[in-house]
Amino acid sequence: MASKPTIRIGVLLIDTVELLDLSPIDLFGMLSEPYVSTLSFLPAPLKAGAVPMEILYINQAGPNTLQECTANVGLRVDASISDKICAPAKKGGEKTLDILLIPGPDPSAYKPTDALNGFIEGHFDNGTDVLSVCTGIYPTGCAGVLKGKRVTGPRPLLPELQKKFPEAIWETKRWVSDGNLWSSGAFTNGQDMVAAYIREKWPGPTAEAMMALADVGERSQEYGVATVLRLSNIKDVASTCLLLPPGK
Protein backbone atom coordinates (compact mmCIF):
# COMPACT_ATOMS: atom_id res chain seq x y z
CA MET A 1 0.00 0.00 0.00
CA ALA A 2 1.35 3.41 -0.96
CA SER A 3 2.20 5.70 1.94
CA LYS A 4 -0.09 8.64 2.58
CA PRO A 5 1.25 12.13 1.84
CA THR A 6 2.07 14.25 4.88
CA ILE A 7 -0.23 17.23 5.29
CA ARG A 8 1.65 20.34 6.37
CA ILE A 9 -0.41 22.81 8.38
CA GLY A 10 0.81 26.30 9.18
CA VAL A 11 -0.70 28.27 12.06
CA LEU A 12 -0.15 32.00 11.59
CA LEU A 13 0.26 33.71 14.97
CA ILE A 14 -0.37 37.45 15.00
CA ASP A 15 -0.13 39.79 18.01
CA THR A 16 -1.75 38.28 21.12
CA VAL A 17 -3.46 35.08 20.05
CA GLU A 18 -6.84 34.10 21.49
CA LEU A 19 -6.52 30.52 22.79
CA LEU A 20 -10.08 29.61 21.84
CA ASP A 21 -9.34 30.74 18.29
CA LEU A 22 -6.25 28.54 18.29
CA SER A 23 -8.04 25.48 19.73
CA PRO A 24 -9.29 24.04 16.39
CA ILE A 25 -5.72 23.05 15.53
CA ASP A 26 -6.06 20.25 18.08
CA LEU A 27 -8.81 18.64 15.97
CA PHE A 28 -6.23 18.22 13.21
CA GLY A 29 -3.80 16.88 15.78
CA MET A 30 -6.36 14.32 16.94
CA LEU A 31 -6.58 12.96 13.40
CA SER A 32 -2.80 12.55 13.13
CA GLU A 33 -1.04 9.19 13.28
CA PRO A 34 0.87 9.84 16.55
CA TYR A 35 -2.35 10.72 18.38
CA VAL A 36 -4.59 8.01 16.93
CA SER A 37 -1.98 5.34 17.59
CA THR A 38 -2.19 6.01 21.36
CA LEU A 39 -5.92 5.24 21.57
CA SER A 40 -5.94 1.64 22.75
CA PHE A 41 -9.74 1.39 22.62
CA LEU A 42 -9.86 2.29 18.91
CA PRO A 43 -10.26 -0.62 16.48
CA ALA A 44 -7.47 -1.19 13.96
CA PRO A 45 -9.60 -0.18 10.93
CA LEU A 46 -10.17 3.23 12.53
CA LYS A 47 -6.48 3.65 13.38
CA ALA A 48 -5.68 2.95 9.73
CA GLY A 49 -7.57 6.10 8.77
CA ALA A 50 -5.17 8.43 10.59
CA VAL A 51 -3.55 11.17 8.52
CA PRO A 52 0.20 11.97 8.52
CA MET A 53 0.50 15.61 9.56
CA GLU A 54 3.11 18.23 10.32
CA ILE A 55 2.03 21.34 12.23
CA LEU A 56 4.15 24.50 12.15
CA TYR A 57 3.58 27.53 14.37
CA ILE A 58 4.58 30.62 12.43
CA ASN A 59 5.00 34.30 13.25
CA GLN A 60 7.01 37.27 12.01
CA ALA A 61 9.83 36.88 14.54
CA GLY A 62 10.59 33.21 13.90
CA PRO A 63 12.10 30.36 15.94
CA ASN A 64 13.46 30.75 19.47
CA THR A 65 10.66 33.17 20.33
CA LEU A 66 7.51 32.77 22.38
CA GLN A 67 4.21 33.91 20.95
CA GLU A 68 2.00 35.63 23.51
CA CYS A 69 -1.48 34.16 23.90
CA THR A 70 -4.43 34.93 26.12
CA ALA A 71 -4.66 33.33 29.60
CA ASN A 72 -0.96 34.11 30.12
CA VAL A 73 0.21 31.37 27.73
CA GLY A 74 3.37 31.48 25.63
CA LEU A 75 3.58 29.34 22.51
CA ARG A 76 6.81 27.98 20.98
CA VAL A 77 7.35 29.20 17.42
CA ASP A 78 8.73 26.92 14.68
CA ALA A 79 9.31 29.31 11.78
CA SER A 80 9.02 32.87 10.53
CA ILE A 81 6.86 33.85 7.58
CA SER A 82 10.01 34.23 5.47
CA ASP A 83 11.50 30.80 6.24
CA LYS A 84 11.76 28.48 3.25
CA ILE A 85 9.79 25.70 4.95
CA CYS A 86 6.61 27.77 4.99
CA ALA A 87 7.08 30.87 2.80
CA PRO A 88 4.72 30.89 -0.21
CA ALA A 89 6.25 29.26 -3.25
CA LYS A 90 7.04 31.40 -6.25
CA LYS A 91 4.63 31.18 -9.17
CA GLY A 92 4.65 27.66 -10.57
CA GLY A 93 6.44 26.22 -7.54
CA GLU A 94 5.17 23.50 -5.23
CA LYS A 95 3.13 24.87 -2.35
CA THR A 96 4.80 24.73 1.05
CA LEU A 97 1.61 24.53 3.12
CA ASP A 98 -1.50 22.47 2.51
CA ILE A 99 -3.50 24.37 5.13
CA LEU A 100 -3.01 27.82 6.67
CA LEU A 101 -4.99 28.37 9.89
CA ILE A 102 -5.32 32.01 10.99
CA PRO A 103 -6.59 32.49 14.57
CA GLY A 104 -7.79 36.00 15.27
CA PRO A 105 -5.78 38.91 16.62
CA ASP A 106 -7.30 41.88 18.44
CA PRO A 107 -8.86 43.77 15.50
CA SER A 108 -8.49 47.14 17.24
CA ALA A 109 -4.73 46.62 17.56
CA TYR A 110 -3.99 44.75 14.31
CA LYS A 111 -1.67 46.56 11.93
CA PRO A 112 -1.27 44.83 8.57
CA THR A 113 2.15 44.72 6.97
CA ASP A 114 3.22 44.03 3.41
CA ALA A 115 5.00 40.91 4.66
CA LEU A 116 1.89 39.49 6.37
CA ASN A 117 -0.36 40.41 3.47
CA GLY A 118 2.03 38.80 1.01
CA PHE A 119 2.29 35.65 3.10
CA ILE A 120 -1.47 35.13 3.27
CA GLU A 121 -2.16 36.16 -0.33
CA GLY A 122 0.73 34.07 -1.64
CA HIS A 123 -0.56 30.91 0.01
CA PHE A 124 -4.12 31.60 -1.08
CA ASP A 125 -3.04 32.12 -4.68
CA ASN A 126 -0.99 28.90 -4.57
CA GLY A 127 -4.10 26.90 -3.66
CA THR A 128 -3.39 26.45 0.04
CA ASP A 129 -6.62 26.10 2.00
CA VAL A 130 -6.87 29.25 4.13
CA LEU A 131 -8.94 28.80 7.30
CA SER A 132 -9.76 32.01 9.16
CA VAL A 133 -11.03 31.75 12.74
CA CYS A 134 -13.04 34.57 14.35
CA THR A 135 -11.16 37.88 13.89
CA GLY A 136 -8.64 36.08 11.69
CA ILE A 137 -10.88 37.45 8.96
CA TYR A 138 -9.24 40.87 9.48
CA PRO A 139 -5.72 39.87 8.37
CA THR A 140 -7.28 37.63 5.73
CA GLY A 141 -9.28 40.57 4.39
CA CYS A 142 -6.33 42.95 4.54
CA ALA A 143 -4.40 40.48 2.37
CA GLY A 144 -6.91 41.12 -0.43
CA VAL A 145 -8.30 37.61 -0.88
CA LEU A 146 -11.98 38.22 -0.06
CA LYS A 147 -13.14 39.73 -3.36
CA GLY A 148 -16.31 37.98 -4.50
CA LYS A 149 -15.96 35.34 -1.80
CA ARG A 150 -18.69 34.14 0.54
CA VAL A 151 -17.35 34.66 4.06
CA THR A 152 -18.35 35.18 7.67
CA GLY A 153 -16.91 36.53 10.91
CA PRO A 154 -17.93 37.18 14.51
CA ARG A 155 -21.60 38.16 14.56
CA PRO A 156 -21.17 41.36 16.61
CA LEU A 157 -18.54 42.57 14.13
CA LEU A 158 -20.34 41.75 10.88
CA PRO A 159 -21.64 45.32 10.30
CA GLU A 160 -18.10 46.68 10.72
CA LEU A 161 -16.64 43.93 8.53
CA GLN A 162 -19.16 44.62 5.78
CA LYS A 163 -18.04 48.25 5.69
CA LYS A 164 -14.33 47.43 5.89
CA PHE A 165 -14.38 44.70 3.25
CA PRO A 166 -17.37 45.46 0.97
CA GLU A 167 -15.86 43.33 -1.80
CA ALA A 168 -16.82 40.16 0.09
CA ILE A 169 -20.22 38.47 0.28
CA TRP A 170 -21.01 38.35 3.99
CA GLU A 171 -23.16 35.62 5.54
CA THR A 172 -24.36 35.19 9.12
CA LYS A 173 -23.35 31.59 9.76
CA ARG A 174 -21.09 29.63 12.09
CA TRP A 175 -18.78 28.96 9.17
CA VAL A 176 -18.67 29.47 5.43
CA SER A 177 -16.51 27.87 2.73
CA ASP A 178 -15.90 29.18 -0.77
CA GLY A 179 -13.23 27.42 -2.77
CA ASN A 180 -10.01 27.30 -0.76
CA LEU A 181 -11.20 29.99 1.67
CA TRP A 182 -12.93 28.99 4.89
CA SER A 183 -14.04 31.42 7.59
CA SER A 184 -15.79 31.10 10.92
CA GLY A 185 -17.76 33.12 13.41
CA ALA A 186 -16.48 33.83 16.89
CA PHE A 187 -14.28 31.62 19.07
CA THR A 188 -15.59 28.03 19.17
CA ASN A 189 -17.26 28.42 15.78
CA GLY A 190 -13.73 27.75 14.56
CA GLN A 191 -14.06 24.23 15.97
CA ASP A 192 -17.31 23.80 14.03
CA MET A 193 -15.55 24.98 10.87
CA VAL A 194 -12.55 22.67 11.23
CA ALA A 195 -14.84 19.71 12.01
CA ALA A 196 -16.70 20.43 8.75
CA TYR A 197 -13.39 20.83 6.90
CA ILE A 198 -12.09 17.48 8.21
CA ARG A 199 -15.30 15.74 7.23
CA GLU A 200 -15.01 17.17 3.71
CA LYS A 201 -11.31 16.40 3.22
CA TRP A 202 -11.08 13.04 5.03
CA PRO A 203 -14.62 11.65 5.17
CA GLY A 204 -15.09 8.35 6.92
CA PRO A 205 -15.20 6.55 10.25
CA THR A 206 -11.86 7.79 11.60
CA ALA A 207 -12.85 11.43 11.22
CA GLU A 208 -16.24 10.71 12.76
CA ALA A 209 -14.62 8.89 15.68
CA MET A 210 -12.33 11.83 16.43
CA MET A 211 -15.20 14.32 16.22
CA ALA A 212 -17.22 12.15 18.62
CA LEU A 213 -14.25 11.85 20.97
CA ALA A 214 -13.85 15.65 21.01
CA ASP A 215 -17.65 16.11 21.15
CA VAL A 216 -17.58 18.71 18.38
CA GLY A 217 -19.01 19.05 14.91
CA GLU A 218 -22.65 18.51 15.83
CA ARG A 219 -23.84 22.12 15.71
CA SER A 220 -25.57 23.26 12.55
CA GLN A 221 -23.91 25.73 10.22
CA GLU A 222 -26.92 27.96 10.83
CA TYR A 223 -27.26 29.79 14.13
CA GLY A 224 -30.30 28.82 16.20
CA VAL A 225 -30.73 25.38 14.60
CA ALA A 226 -30.67 22.21 16.70
CA THR A 227 -27.70 19.84 16.59
CA VAL A 228 -27.27 17.85 13.42
CA LEU A 229 -26.19 14.53 14.94
CA ARG A 230 -25.33 13.10 18.31
CA LEU A 231 -23.42 9.86 18.73
CA SER A 232 -22.91 9.18 22.41
CA ASN A 233 -19.42 7.71 22.27
CA ILE A 234 -16.66 6.20 20.17
CA LYS A 235 -18.22 2.74 20.16
CA ASP A 236 -21.41 4.18 18.69
CA VAL A 237 -19.34 5.60 15.84
CA ALA A 238 -17.59 2.30 15.27
CA SER A 239 -20.91 0.42 15.36
CA THR A 240 -22.43 2.89 12.90
CA CYS A 241 -19.51 2.23 10.54
CA LEU A 242 -20.03 -1.56 10.92
CA LEU A 243 -16.59 -1.98 12.46
CA LEU A 244 -17.86 -3.18 15.82
CA PRO A 245 -21.04 -5.08 16.68
CA PRO A 246 -23.54 -2.92 18.62
CA GLY A 247 -23.05 -3.00 22.38
CA LYS A 248 -19.50 -4.37 22.24
Topology of this protein?
Layout: E1 7-12, H1 19-22, H2 25-31, H3 33-36, H4 44-47, E2 53-59, E3 66-69, E4 73-76, E5 79-80, E6 99-102, H5 114-125, E7 129-132, H6 137-142, E8 150-151, H7 158-164, E9 169-170, E10 175-178, E11 181-184, H8 189-201, H9 205-214, H10 234-240
Parallel strand pairs: 1-2, 1-6, 2-5, 6-7, 7-11, 8-9
Antiparallel strand pairs: 3-4, 10-11
Helix pairs in contact: 9-10
Pfam families: DJ-1_PfpI
Organism: Letharia lupina
Domain DJ-1/PfpI: 69-198
Please give the alpha-carbon distance between the first and last residues: 30 Å
What overall geometry do the principal axes of the alpha carbons give? globular
The quaternary structure here is single chain
What is the strand content? 15-25%
Helical content class: 25-40%
Domain DJ-1/PfpI: 69-198
Protein name: DJ-1/PfpI domain-containing protein
Pfam families: DJ-1_PfpI (PF01965)
InterPro entries: Class_I_gatase-like (IPR029062), DJ-1/PfpI (IPR002818), INH-QAR (IPR052158)
